[in-house]
Amino acid sequence: MSARPAAADGYDHTFKAIHDRDVPWTEGLATELLTLPPGVQVKVLAHDPAMKRVDMKVKFPPGYVEPEHSHKSWHSIVVLAGRMCVAGKDLRPGDYVFGWDEPHGPYEYPDGCEVFVVFMGEGTQHVWDERKHAAHAREWAPETAAGRAAAK
């Protein structure tokens, strides 16, 4: 059997099956890809520059607040673990969020959260106002010991 030829665009579009444990969490990459305040970790599962698509898992620590922001791309998010509180909703595993080029957020993670995100478009970088973010008053109370410790 011969190997499958490379895609015309030069990128690998072959089938993948990846164990979560085989992809390490990284914080530095999160800072670069997402341009968010420190503390976030990511696992990039697939990146296709030709399609302008990035599939990743993102982990937010207890007490983290993601600033109100916009992107030059859209994103679809599914909550995998923990809580994501946004737009008056307390989202739990299985819940969904969609955002695009208009401002959305802030997102609060009172007890920490892990999500699966697909970005499609010109970039994964968040565009946000540091002064507005610093003035944000948290709206959601933690439910876990880790969340309560982070809130102190």
Structure description:
By secondary structure, the chain is mostly beta strands. It has a single domain (20-151), classed as Jelly Rolls. It is 12% helix and 34% strand. It has three helices and nine strands; from the N terminus they run αβββββββββαα. The chain has helices at 28-34, 130-134, 145-151, and strands spanning 41-48, 53-60, 64-66, 73-82, 84-86, 89-91, 96-99, 107-109, 113-121. Strands 1-2-9-4-7 form a five-stranded antiparallel beta sheet, covered by helices on one side. A two-stranded antiparallel ribbon has the order 3-8. A two-stranded antiparallel ribbon has the order 5-6. The protein is globular, with a radius of gyration of 17 Å.
* Secondary structure category: mainly beta
> How big is the Rg?
17 Å
The tally of domains stands at: 1
Largest β-sheet summary: 5 strands, antiparallel
Report the strand count: 9
Question: Considering DSSP H and I runs of 4 or more, what fraction of the residues is helical?
Answer: 10-25%
First and last CA, distance: 61 Å
Unreliable runs, pLDDT <50, ≥5 residues?
Answer: none
Q: Look up the CATH topology.
A: Jelly Rolls
Our count of helices gives: 3
CATH C-level label: Mainly Beta
Strand content: 25-35%
Mean pLDDT: 90
The rough form would be described as: globular
Please state how the strands of the largest beta sheet are arranged side by side.
1-2-9-4-7
Give the H and E element order: HEEEEEEEEEHH
**Per CATH, which architecture?**
Sandwich
CATH superfamily: Jelly Rolls
Task: Describe the protein's topology.
Elements: H1 28-34, E1 41-48, E2 53-60, E3 64-66, E4 73-82, E5 84-86, E6 89-91, E7 96-99, E8 107-109, E9 113-121, H2 130-134, H3 145-151
Antiparallel strand pairs: 1-2, 2-9, 3-8, 4-7, 4-9, 5-6
